[in-house]
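#onboarding

Welcome to the new folks! Below is a worked example of what a typical request in this channel looks like: someone posts a single protein sequence, and someone else replies with the predicted structure as tokens. Don't worry about understanding the tokens yet, we'll cover that in week two.

Example request:
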Amino acid sequence: MKLWGKASPSPRKSPYRPQTAQPAHAPLYNDLSSPALSKTIICSTRGRIARLLPSTDPDSLLIEDGFRLMKIGTDGTLSENPMLEGLLVNDPPIAQKGAPSVTGPLQMALSADRRHFFLSGIFAASGDGSNRTGAEKTGFWRDGQVFKVDAASRKASVFFALPEKDVISNLDARGKSPIADFKYGTYAALQGVAADGEGRVFVCDRQNKRVLVLSGEGKIERELPVEYPDAIAVHPRSRILYVTTRTGHYHGKGKLKLLRFGDWSRDAAPSFVAVLCPVGTYDQATRLAVAEAGGKAYLWIAYTPLPVRVYLEKGDGLEPVKDFYEASPQRALDVQHIIADQTTGDVYVSDGWGNCFRVSDWKEPRFARCMQDEETPLKALSIAIEHRGRFLYGHSDRRPVARYRIEGGLFPPAPVGGSKDNAVTPTPFSNDWRIGLGFGDRGIAVAPDGSLLVLANPGAGPEYSGPLYFFRADPADAPWKPLHFSKLGKPRSGGARFDMKGNLYVGLYDGKSPDPPKGFEKDAAFAGCMGRIYKYAPTGSLKDGNLFPAEPAAPEKIYDVHYGSIGPQFARTPRFGVDGWGRIYYPTSLLPRVSIMDNEGNAILSFGTYGNRDSTGGLPGDLVPTSDVPMAWPNSVDATDEHVFVSDIVNIRILRLAKTFAASETAEIR
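Example response:
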């Protein structure tokens, strides 16, 4: 039986060799708007990642989230029950029903004998349960304390404390104090903590603008003046001390700095200071660690936007030896949406934060930032390519759609007609926004004649539905006039494409996705997010120069496929692709599956099985072989004549698959 059904129209190469694929595992998810690797504490909602804490067992890694603990072997192995019983602290309970919630940028350090660990940066929050008003002034978990915890029993005691009368409780007062605490950027009075081999403990005291050196009994031996100390580490065989300082939060920009004290017992000022990066959106604390290798000491520092740098200790200063941002080709940390250049085979990526990247060298693929010129990044949430004119269209949140020229590796603005402005729409378009998740976006598309389709709400919000607006291209004048597809109302849309004839395809959730796959028959999340693809025939023509002079009365066809997920609460929607022959490539995100059909809706093939980053489908270094193409959450699919491209947003990678054909034919063009 031929799975591809009717042949695609006028193919140069057709049809594909038929394949079938059933996933061996349906991936778990804890939030459709922020799919994760699993339901364990490795990944929590809104893209947050559990902390890696120092472990008393040198052969195990300790992972913490919500004070719950999980153990993983340093060789990557998991026990049958990797979750540890109890919490990080069991006595007194660090989290209990009816008690104030404990929050803050948790910092932890092991004692030299590994029998105890020290906790700092955490405190009981005051408030009404939903809004934090500050920090508790009394009680075991009040602010301004360092705790010593028995590693075996996980029983805590207070190791050092600021006087109770000095605790700053009110959130507004804490924000104006050197603590710099804020609703959207939590800081504690005492924060970073480290321990040396002689039993001393080093503490970052933000409230008093100092670093404390404490004896093994918790007595102050020395104070070093440091403003806004965040994290701290000590050299294992000397008195060199490393400190990060951090200010800023979601509504107030700040800086991250690295300080080095050559001798904490004598120096009153650092011998080395480096400004590392701005601080703003992310509220996570910095992490410091010193590792020894080959008789040398290396300082590792991590922070969300940094992300990781390594310095070599030279004895008289620090020498940077590795910047993971520069060293790694994986600069795009969010591959939600991709689009393939039909002319060059390049793939463009727009992440959830307005950054755009291009992958062009598939022998040594790298995410290269899209730049307007040598210094100006191209910012856009949605991107689309006009292949005929070699233009790229994009728009940022609350900005009009703008046009850029694709030339010489750069993307300079391309004004329309005699205008000096490269904006082509008369109004900006708003996009959904979620703290921790980024911007929601539903998509744009360019027709064969250069006309534009936008799925977004015009204006500055806060309406985040996905209405459809068509803009007829006018090469002599801008901005272009919109045609609203009013019959759609305020749809939950996701993705739009044109074929070479000007037919329009739109992904929509209508609650009518048929025949859920095996295992999903009673899955409310699947039924509540799975969309279908709608096809609209032009009401005009390419020949007349206007594909849609009027809104279509109804869709020409609705493809009963499992397309999505088009999330119910956030517009980080999927994308499908349409190639030159009208074949449609679409993801079923809750299944690790990508499917292809012709424009009559006949299935050509489906592929995909569950696979994590250790599975590479038989490529060199494949640690966990699979019987099909390994994916965790395919969200965006596109294709050229020769290749299919898939963005796997959980494994954070793009797959490039070569098409194979059962037959091919070459026709002479006269």
